[in-house]
Amino acid sequence: MSADRDQEDVSIAARIKENPGPALGWMVGALLLFALEAGAVVHFVTSLLGNPVELPTLLSRELIPNNGYVKPNGVWKETFLGLPAAYAWALRVVLIYAYAFLWLVWLWRGYLVFRENYRYADWTPRDDMVDRLRSHRWGQFGAVIVFAFVVMAMFAPALGPTTVERTISNPYSHYIEYYNDDGQLENVTVGSANLGSRSQGTPDRNVGPMEYDDYGRWHPFGTLPSGKDMFTFMAAGARISLFIGLTSILVSGFIAVAFALVTAYYKGLVDLLVVILGDSIMSLPSLLFVMLLSVVLGDTWLADIYSGGFLLAVIFAGTGWPFLWRSVRGPAMQIAEQEWIDAAKSFGQRPSVTMRKHMAPYILGYLLVYSSMRLGGIIIAVAGLSFLGLGVSPPTPEWGRAVNIGQSYVTTSSWHISFIPGVLIVLVVTAFNALGDGIRDAIDPQSESGEGEGAEVAAAGGGGA
């Protein structure tokens, strides 16, 4: 028993050093996958620093271009292999999602390598959790939609038929070529072409989903009333929604876990103070409070970061941590009453070590469940704020603004402007909730029937949410 314990205390780095083969094989594959898109990562990081660096990238619009023009005889020029713009764009989208799926498979392969070669235990409770999640159809549905949404956000610049810079931010500084009705090749700014591709409710002024405009540009989701490509708008909007959601969840989750551990360990006055603070924030009307803070802080330097996206993330984190804290406070209180916590105290172990090693692992699963569900709520809240003209500042794309822009065209030929983003918002929010359900049922198999001690812990954890 003592020998097994000594083995378990060996660090993962030491285990890999003893048997480096499987880990090195997996690492080589991961580096090859990363190398395919390393240029995009470098460009993104350097763009944040204000000095973007361009490097060759495999899955890019430069390698697989779709922005070309069609000659009067029907032959396409300046597109990938002379394919029609729609086919070139679809090929790039398929390759990007295949690349992302390959990463997913390789990460799963990495988990299997760890389990087979570097984990001393033949079985852990995590194995059963993974098996239950793999058979949870509702959770798998959520995982598929969340995967598609995350890939859209991460690869937004390459997925769109065009770029935000060309069609939204600075359209009059970019040009396209097309053949006019007289068969002459003309050069026109993207902004001028947008004016001729507007969707404004009538059949003669509408570019719907899966259609070309008069300039040979392909629009998978149609165009906006301004003539800007809607798919590019939605892909860029997915990126900012994901940034706000993840940033706010990470910050609020850290605060929630810290307060839950401290209040469960010390109880008494510390718990009372946090309860008063949390309940005070929760008692305020959430939407009105967020709107008030976004207006009051709208002129600060925080609003200049990421077009107001960082400010919204901070606001949602500051107002959302009590809900996550209430969700994990119950499980933390139950863990604090266990015998091994008393034993750690009696041995003089520092409180921070006890909370980190012996308490935190037991509540992180519940935090993951409620964070997944709350992330969907944040996405729909951001869309609601943008619908009201608050939050993310225009012209930065955001899904709620598209719904607002198209609400007067719902019963016209341009129905797609509000309908598509509305459906995507509902689908993504439902998917995050479904994924949260799947994770909950994987962690606690008795939660579906509401029976057993695990269900009681879940009920105690979620009572304040």
TrEMBL record:
Q: Does the keyword Nucleotidyltransferase apply?
A: no
The record's listing under CDD domains reads:
TM_PBP2 (cd06261)
Q: What membrane topology does this protein have?
A: Multi-pass membrane protein
Domain ABC transmembrane type-1, by residue range, is: 238-436
Report residue spans for region: Disordered: 443-465
- Cell location: Cell membrane
Q: Which Gene Ontology terms of cellular component type are present?
A: plasma membrane
Among InterPro entries, the record links this protein to: BP-dependent_transpt_permease (IPR050366), MetI-like (IPR000515), MetI-like_sf (IPR035906), OppC_N (IPR025966)
What is the recorded name of this protein?
ABC transporter permease
